[in-house]
Amino acid sequence: MLEVKGLTKKFGGLTALNDVNMSVADGAIHGLIGPNGSGKTTLINVISGFCAPTSGSITMAGREISSLTPYAISRLGMVRTFQNINIFPEMTVLQNSLMGNFMHEQPNLGSVIVGSKGYRAQVKRSMELAEEMLNFVGLAEVRNKQAGTMPYGRQRKLEIARALMTRPKLLVLDEPVAGMNEQESDAVADLLLKLQAKRNITIILIEHDMRFVMKLCSLITVLSAGKVIAAGISTEIQNNAEVISVYLGTGRKKHARN
Ligand SMILES: Nc1ncnc2c1ncn2[C@@H]1O[C@H](COP(=O)(O)OP(=O)(O)OP(=O)(O)O)[C@@H](O)[C@H]1O
Which PROSITE patterns does UniProt cross-reference here (predicted)? Predict the structure, then answer.
């Protein structure tokens, strides 16, 4: 699904990503872990087009995407969420999920003003899709609730429902269970497993909660100071001496400077 090769990102004198390689298989849940400041968010910012790489290549389903805008990348089927929950708190659950579709399809202004047949058909399709996605994530019964009044776990599920409105092939999640209790995080984990099984969506996730990562991810890439220090299945990662050393803080290196 996604191949990252020789990816480097410099911010002035700081090398945030240093010759990173990562291969994400079709249908996988791929974990991206590493200590604070190791480059995880920068990597997904570059992958999703929010930040241009200094050098290297990124291909999605065989197509080079490293110079595309986030919008163009989302049209190809990649959608991402951010560390902070990013919903419209005053709007209802249903209105929030519809936003996913309107942002993606961008209806023609003229047809909206005159309420053309094509536009009405598009609205009907969007409503049906929103109902389907809210059902899928388990929020259909609270469709008319004000989104900002719901607990964290449900708000995150709503973000995922909104992301699903664009029918993505690849979902990139930045700390999807940050700030959640165990019960909420288990509910999100179950939802991601269901997404993988029933919708065949590939998922890349950054997460500090190791229990969550080990439970979900078939493969894990570990970053430290902008470099990949390990990649493998959960048992390999848990037993990798360099990973253990980095997490215990003894092997922490300074970022390379050019
Ligand atoms: N826009 C930017 N300008 C300058 N430096 C940046 C920028 N974005 C990130 N960095 C630096 O790049 C390095 C990697 O940061 P990044 O946020 O990618 O790490 P992270 O692994 O996601 O950390 P965390 O787990 O704390 O979110 C850090 O030293 C950070 O200060």
Answer: ABC_TRANSPORTER_2
Q: What is the pTM of this model?
A: 0.86
Residue ending a domain, choose from 140, 166, 192: 166
Instruction: Print the domain residue range for 151.
Output: 87-166
For residue 16, the CA-to-ligand 1 centroid distance in Å is 7
Give the phi and the psi of residue 38 in degrees, each rounded to 5: -80, -10
What is the tens place of the pLDDT at every residue in 147-172?
999 998 899 899 999 988 888 999 99
pLDDT tens-digit series, residues 92-144:
999 999 887 765 566 666 656 666 666 677 778 888 889 988 988 899 999 99
Residues 19, 70: Cα–Cα separation, whole Å? 22
Tell me how far apart the terminal alpha carbons of the chain are, to the nearest angstrom.
Answer: 32
If one residue of 20, 41, 83, 228 were mutated to test the ligand 1 pocket, choosing by the most ligand atoms within 8 A of its CB, it would be 41
> b/e per residue, 211-246, with b = 16+ CB within 10 A?
ebbbebbebbbbbbbbbbbbbeebeebeebeebeeb
The span from the CA of 185 to the CA of 110, in Å, is 44
φ and ψ of 161, to 5 deg: -60, -40
Burial of 43 (0-12, 13-18, 19+ CB in 10 A): buried
Which residue's alpha carbon is at the smallest distance from atom 16 of ligand 1?
39
Q: Mark whether 71 and 172 lie in a shared domain.
A: yes
Provide the token pair at 147.
């989104």
Q: Does one domain contain both 213 and 228? A: yes
Contacting residues for 72 by C-beta, under 8 A, at least 6 apart: 49, 65
41 lines ligand 1 (CB under 6 A): yes
Q: Would you say the CB of residue 168 lies under 6 angstroms from ligand 1? A: no
